[in-house]
Design brief:
about 100 residues, alpha+beta, three-stranded antiparallel beta sheet, 3 helices, elongated
Length: about 100
């Protein structure tokens, strides 16, 4: 039997149902699709660890790791499941990656 983790959405605007809590049932599948290079709307996911969808905010920080990476002489912070996916979604050469715990 497969262990399925889920993420529950929290409303962040007034025009959506405040009592409804939509769920993303398979978090791993969602994150694999969200961390593709040309996927639109994943800026909040990469920079802050949450995803906004139709008035609801899904927090994925417990499934992601915060990394500090150096690119072109500047340091940047990003959330990603692992270092390989971070390299995949970042354009250009990454000089160093540090895992922030």
């Amino acid at each position: 039997m497969r262990n399925i983790s889920k993420a529950i959405g929290i409303p962040f605007v007034l025009h959506v149902c405040q009592k409804s809590r939509p769920e993303i049932l398979d978090v791993n599948d969602f994150l694999n699709k969200a961390y593709q290079r040309y996927y639109t709307g994943n800026d909040n996911l990469i920079n802050y660890g949450y995803y906004k969808l139709m008035g609801y905010k899904f927090d994925f920080k417990k499934y992601l790791t915060k990394y500090l990476y150096k690119q072109y002489g500047q340091w940047h912070e990003a959330y990603a499941p692992n270092k390989t996916i971070l390299r995949k979604i970042t354009f250009g050469r990454i000089d160093a990656i540090i895992d922030l715990k």
